[in-house]
Amino acid sequence: EGDIIIISRKMETVRLRGELLYPTTVRFSPGKTLKYFINSSGGFDNKAKRSGTYVVYANGDVARTKKILFFNIFPKVEPGCEIIVPKKEDRIPLGANQLLGLTTGITTLILAINQIN
């Protein structure tokens, strides 16, 4: 009796998921950039695809990171959004047999071109 519960209509947090050192939920701060929020969760993991980072807003809209020349332009962060950092694809290194076949093919091609001239 006499207690009052106040429920905020607007979410004031930002959720961070994916390839981060400490995926978490942090309090929204106006004027802060996406990099600020990523750093507040420990930063990118070594398996993170930084250029693939995207933001899912509270209304369901999605904004992705854009790349112009050598620069990544990160989307704007709003209260109630979710920042997702995807994982890099695993690279399969060339095996010894594949490397031998590739060099043999290139060498044969070079010898054939020399014989024509």
Report what the structure shows:
The protein has 117 residues and is α+β, with helices and mostly antiparallel strands. The chain has two helices and seven strands, in the order ββαβββββα. It has helices at residues 34-40, 96-116; strands at 13-18, 25-27, 54-56, 62-64, 66-68, 71-73, 82-85. The strands form two sheets. It has a five-stranded mixed β-sheet with strand order 2-1-7-3-4, covered by helices on one side. Strand 1 (13-18) and strand 2 (25-27) form a beta hairpin. It is elongated, with a radius of gyration of 24 Å. The N and C termini lie far apart (99 Å). The model has no long low-confidence stretch (mean pLDDT 88).
Quick summary of this structure?
With 117 residues, the chain is α+β, with helices and mostly antiparallel strands. It has helices at 34-40, 96-116, and strands at 13-18, 25-27, 54-56, 62-64, 66-68, 71-73, 82-85.
Strand content: 15-25%
Largest beta sheet: strand ordering: 2-1-7-3-4
Q: Please state the average pLDDT score.
A: 88
Strand tally: 7
Radius of gyration over C-alpha positions, nearest whole angstrom? 24 Å
Helix count from the secondary structure assignment: 2
For the largest beta-sheet, the strand count, sense and barrel status come to: 5 strands, mixed
- The percent range for helix content is 10-25%
| Low confidence ranges | none
Q: In terms of topology, how is this protein built?
A:
Layout lengths: L12 E6 L6 E3 L6 H7 L13 E3 L5 E3 L1 E3 L2 E3 L8 E4 L10 H21 L1
Parallel strand pairs: 1-7
Antiparallel strand pairs: 1-2, 3-4, 3-7, 5-6
